[in-house]
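Z., the sequence and structure:
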Amino acid sequence: MKRFAIYLVFFCTFQMFAQVKYDVKKVNDHVYIFTELWDANANGNCGVVIGDKEVVLINSMMMGSAPDLEREIQKITDLPIGFVINSDSDTYNHHANTYFADKGATIISHENIKYSEAYHQLLFKDEISISIGDDEVTAYHTQLIHWII
């Protein structure tokens, strides 16, 4: 029984300190796709749009990986994350909303997310646009999925 407890503590400690790995794709000078690498069969994606004074994060991902995601974003810009837009109600896409809200980001979601457990601050019905300097990020609601352009 003692051997099991030691292995369990070691495994949990290792998991707590294991850094999340990301594949980062640059779309253009202001837009990146971050893929959190889980295993060969499953990965999670989020988008990063860099404005003049702040960053728009599309999907906050999971709470456990939020600090690693934040560090990865800081490798490409020192600007703060000003907005998080949730693309849908999948927990894997919005679990870390409170992490980024606690750091000053405004959390934006479609109005239907109010029926879920997801933390949100600002809701929209059909579309919402956010000016981030010379660029504008617009989120549109569709019947199947929320598209961010």
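The domain at 20-148 is CATH 3.60.15.10 (Metallo-beta-lactamase; Chain A). Helices lie at 2-17, 66-74, 91-94, 97-102.

Let me know what you think.
H.
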